[in-house]
Amino acid sequence: MKIIDGGVTAAKGFVATCTAAGIKYKDRKDMALIYSEVPCKTAGTYTTNIVKAAPVLWDKELTDHSPYTQAVVINAGIANACTGKEGFQYCEETATEASESLNIPVNSVLVASTGVIGKQLPMDKIKAGVKVMAQKLGQTIEDGHAAAKAIMTTDTLPKEAAVEVIIGGRCVTIGGMCKGSGMIHPNMCTMLSFITTDIAISKELLQEALSEDVKDTYNMISVDGDTSTNDTVLLMANGLAGNAEITSKNEDYNQFKKALNYINTCLSKKIAGDGEGATALFEVQVIGAESKEQAVVLSKSVITSSLTKAAIFGHDANWGRILCAMGYSGAQFDPEKVDLYFESKAGKLQIIENGVALNYSEEEATKILSETEVSAIADIKMGDAKATAWGCDLTYDYVKINADYRS
User: Which residues constitute the catalytic centre (predicted)?
Assistant: First the structure.
């Protein structure tokens, strides 16, 4: 596997663009379009929030029942959530506009929205934006990067990843872009992710690969514990790499899954590290677990602990908060067997052994916790299972950003 520059335009046959439609923001691009030159097998995973935005309902219908898709229209600023029948109708109107502009079927156009909940989309601006974008699609890295910037809301930077891998003797490329900074606690936040690949693979295996991988990537991140109404991950495969179509779980399928996992892990960590107001990516590894499920519960409990997140912001090795968060997680373990370490590029330091604090240097611990990427490793000594979760610190700016987000 080779890591390369790029995002959604990295794979063969995929183009993208963006425009400033003026939906909410007055000084930046706020719409993006991804288009494949040929029809795509498409998989999707969506929010588990009972309150689902109209685009989620539209896209799920397409990924479940449409024979193929070919385009995605994305807007930032208004989520089109809690908008009733009118909101769903606006999804169809957006898809119809793209259908006419790109000369493709309406049921091949996916839509996605992010932003304020409860407001209706300004359809005159949406339709005008679609028309403009249909005329300026491009396949360069810069085109993909511009699209990644256009879907941001409170994000501070665009998020992209791309890799190449040899499958069936052919070079297969997978690229992706995502957005997410607040309302992040996926149970597939507000989190949108779009992955494009030129691999030839059956729709059934494409969906299975995505559904399985989401469990270890997007579902292992949290910024604030709020599961969004709009969470969506879309994976489009157009087959232009020319490999023999993957129809069984063979070595080619395993290679694809490894590359897909890299993309999803990379994008997930970018979301967690760019949490609203965050100054650090906080990674929690639970090792020595009896089962994967136990490790998942424990690691996610720590990254969602507000007290632990605040301690990371303060560069404070307050290990009691971590042990406490593990203790109320619901998972069973022996606290008197836990070893805990802090690690960053500044070094690694054991903090507790068998549930008791060691005579460690607070100064060294603070140095380790002052980096922009910080890890806590908890060994519970019960088995060989493990899990990793990602979050961020909790800062004053998180409250400032969310206190007046709507206004």
Answer: 190 (nucleophile)
Helix (H, G, I), strand (E, B) or coil at 38: strand
Q: What's the CATH architecture for 2-273?
A: 4-Layer Sandwich (3.60)
Q: Could you please report the per-residue DSSP string of 334-386?
A: -GGG-EEEEEETTEEEEEEETTEE----HHHHHHHHTSSEEEEEEE--S-SEE
Domain with CATH 3.60.70.12 in the chain: 2-273
Binding residues: 153, 179, 190, 276, 402, 407
Those residues whose C-beta lies under 8 Å from the C-beta of residue 329, and which sit 6 or more positions away, are 297, 298, 300, 301
Q: Where are the alpha helices (DSSP H) in 41-140?
A: 54-65, 84-102, 123-134
User: How many Cα atoms sit within 13 Å of 342 on the Cβ side?
Assistant: 29
Backbone φ/ψ region at 347: left (φ over 0), alpha (ψ -120 to 50), beta: left
Specify the domain boundaries for CATH 3.10.20.340 within the chain.
281-403
> In one letter, which amino acid is 238?
N
- pLDDT value at residue 225: 56
Q: What DSSP state is assigned to residue 12?
A: T
- The CATH code of the domain at 281-403 is 3.10.20.340
Rounded Cα gap, residues 139 and 373, in angstroms: 33
The tens-digit pLDDT sequence of the chain (407 residues) is 999 999 999 999 999 999 999 998 888 999 999 999 999 999 999 988 888 999 999 999 999 999 999 999 999 999 999 999 999 999 999 999 999 999 999 999 999 999 888 999 999 999 999 999 999 999 999 999 999 999 998 888 999 999 999 999 999 999 999 998 655 454 434 589 999 999 999 999 999 999 999 999 998 987 655 555 678 999 999 999 999 999 999 999 999 999 999 999 999 999 888 877 789 999 999 999 999 999 999 999 999 999 999 999 999 999 999 999 999 999 999 999 999 999 999 999 999 999 999 999 999 999 999 999 999 999 999 999 999 999 998 888 877 877 775 55
- Positions marked active-site: 190
Pairing of strands 281-289, 373-379: parallel
The model's pTM: 0.89
Binding site listing for substrate: 153, 179, 190, 276, 402, 407
